[in-house]
């Protein structure tokens, strides 16, 4: 379930754990989906996913989109 009313902004990975833990504590569904883009390094995504799991996410997945035919 998307979190409504949450402003999209860049956060240091070190701030993610506490913020996500607070959100997850109010939800029964503790699955988190991550959407990145081509500008985010793989290592950053892995560190983010580890922080999400440490915050209590029961399952962390990636949202993917098929590349366009022109790519």
The radius of gyration over CA amounts to: 13 Å
Sketch the major β-sheet.
Answer: 2 strands, parallel
Contiguous uncertain segments of 5+ residues:
none
Proportion in β-strands: 5-15%
SSE string, helices as H and strands as E: HEHE
Number of E-state strands: 2
Structural class: alpha+beta
- Number of distinct helices: 2
What would you call the shape?
globular
Distance between the termini: 31 Å
Give the spatial strand order of the biggest sheet: 1-2
pLDDT averaged over residues: 82
- Summarize the amount of helix as a percent range: 25-40%
What does this structure look like?
By secondary structure, the chain is of the alpha+beta class. The radius of gyration is 13 Å and the shape is globular. The protein has a two-stranded parallel ribbon with strand order 1-2. 35% of the residues lie in helices and 11% in strands. It contains 2 helices and 2 strands; from the N terminus they run αβαβ. The longest helix has 13 residues, at 42-54. Helix 2 (42-54) links the parallel strand 1 (31-34) and strand 2 (59-62).
Present the secondary structure layout.
Blueprint lengths: L12 H12 L6 E4 L7 H13 L4 E4 L9
Parallel strand pairs: 1-2
Helix pairs in contact: 1-2
Provide a short characterization of the protein structure.
Helix content is 35%, strand content 11%.
